[in-house]
Design goal:
The protein has four helices and no strands. By secondary structure, it is mainly alpha-helical. It has one domain.
């Protein structure tokens, strides 16, 4: 979140901001992070919500 606030994060978030961090998952590298993000985005809404409920 600090990277986004300082201008080093994604341009999308920098321009629009974010409301809150729902869940954080530590991964090895950026490639793995992208892969995890895509897996989550492919889930149906109900499974996404249950994924975030397991915080």
């Amino acid at each position: 979140m600090l990277a986004h606030a300082s201008g080093k994060g994604s341009k999308y978030v920098k321009g629009r901001g974010f409301k809150r961090l729902l869940k954080f998952k530590k991964v090895r590298d950026k490639s793995t992070a992208y892969r995890v993000e895509l897996e989550i985005k492919k889930l149906p809404r109900s499974k996404k919500l249950s994924w975030f409920d397991n915080i």
